[in-house]
Amino acid sequence: MERPRPSVDNLYGLLMEPVAVAPDRPAVVEADDKGVLHETSYRRLDLLTQEYAAALDGLGLDVGDRVIVEADTSAASVAMLLACSMLGLPFVTVSPQTPDTRLQTIVSAVEPALHARADSLAPRERVEVEGSAHFGPDGLVVERAPARRVRRRRNVLATDTAYIVFTSGSTGRPKGVVMSHRSIVTFLRAMRTDELAGPGDRVAGTSPLQFDFALFGIGVALSSGATLVPVRREDLSSPRRMIGFLRDAEVTQVHGVPSLWRPVLRHDPDLLKELEPLRSVVFAGEEFPIPELRRLQEMLPGVRVVNGYGATESMAASFTDVPDPLPAGLERLSIGYAHAGAEMTLVDGRGAIVTEPGQTGEIYLRSPALFTGYWNDPEATAAVLVPDPADPRHGQKVFKTGDLARLGAQGDLSFVGRSDYQVQIHGNRVELGEIESTLTRLPRVTAAAVTLVPRSGDHVLTAAVVLDGPGDIDTRAALAFCAQQLPAYMVPRSIHTLAELPLTVNGKVDRALLTEKLASPRRTSDLRHATNA
């Protein structure tokens, strides 16, 4: 059967629109291993995409077959994602730093036809995938071809899956968020309407490719005809290297979590004065501490700062300009109103719509850009894709976010917190239950609880465990075990042995009291002493 044809609402079609109007405009600017900048035009990016698509098509894969793409963000990895989109092959992005155990869990869940790795990465000997390949600027090389399929599909539809992003899961296993072409294309068209970026922008992406914030940056840049500028992991580790790269690449917009800016603000804020072309900063994934945000505005006068709010299940929900200067006494930033084509509604504990300013409720998101569901988990899907509380009779589903917000006088929202045990770590969504489940697999651990503890202006993951008898946990071995099972951002900073976990009157872990105990070295040592007695 001939190659499947992509529909109008296809991620490839949207992101490659600039080829028709400005083929020689740079689509991607990236640094090589020596730090030298290289440009890839929209024309060249499309040619590489077509080359990859031809190689993938030769494997006889059918629409819907999954492809794991392991890489950092680059022109080659973007072309790989676009080639998959063109053929209707849902891509599952993973980071080269993903532990083998976690990657194998994802592989077992989605049963991919192909594991495609960037050229620079060695094969993973302990991860079993039917087919394997590596790709780079010179093409895609198939190492082990998957079994040929019987193609049942002729067209790639807007409702077909574009990608699956795996986030932390409360059951101890990663949770796959399934996004259709229609949803992601609708979202990116809304971003064009909101004019987040334009053809003259150079958009720096700082998140690993496995996270939706990286896909957001790729989509916003290319769908608006701008230039994507991925920042290498090694450059992010040093404020001087990061600022030097942003300066040399003439970046006009930076996407990143607030903690991206903390090292330079603390140690060498004058470096920010070198970013003369910079016009905007977009942050998301966690709250920006107000003192640090004030300092950033002081060092980048006139630069637009945008507060992004949302979840992987909808890519994002709102983008709100931060007042400049920030009002005196401001405690929380507004998350404003939903982006073009979407709407956020607050619902109280009785299920009623919140209409009075000052009241708090859970955010329900109406949007044509919602995810399809969680991969192979209809129960979890049904818990968050729910009938519209305003009028359930029409059958429309809305996203029950689990986020709490306060209604402002002008109808805008201010984020208050979560209604469950989910937290954000440097822009990564983390279910505390997954870390706790990992800890309980350690020898002698009978119970575990994890919380965020304030440390030097930041919040760090801190764990408490209860053992089956006297003694203390081998912290080094426990942390090493966690590092083998979990991504680096989910590994607790420290693990403490307690005689027992603090509980509420309902028998649940009292996380507020646990945070207080773990934040106080004296109280923690008292409990540890009681355990060792």
From TrEMBL:
Which residues, if any, are the signal sequence?
none
A GO cellular component annotation in the UniProt record: cytoplasm
Locate the AMP-dependent synthetase/ligase domain: which residues? Answer: 19-375
Biological processes, Gene Ontology terms: amino acid activation for nonribosomal peptide biosynthetic process; secondary metabolite biosynthetic process
InterPro entries given in the database record:
AMP-bd_C (IPR025110), AMP-bd_C_sf (IPR045851), AMP-binding_CS (IPR020845), AMP-dep_synth/lig_dom (IPR000873), ANL_N_sf (IPR042099)
Kindly list the GO molecular function terms attached to this UniProt entry: phosphopantetheine binding
Domain AMP-binding enzyme C-terminal, chain residue ranges per copy: 434-508
Keywords per UniProt = Plasmid
Q: From which domain of life does this come?
A: Bacteria
**A Pfam family recorded for this sequence:** AMP-binding
State what protein this is by name. AMP-binding protein
Q: Lineage of the source organism?
A: Bacteria, Bacillati, Actinomycetota, Actinomycetes, Kitasatosporales
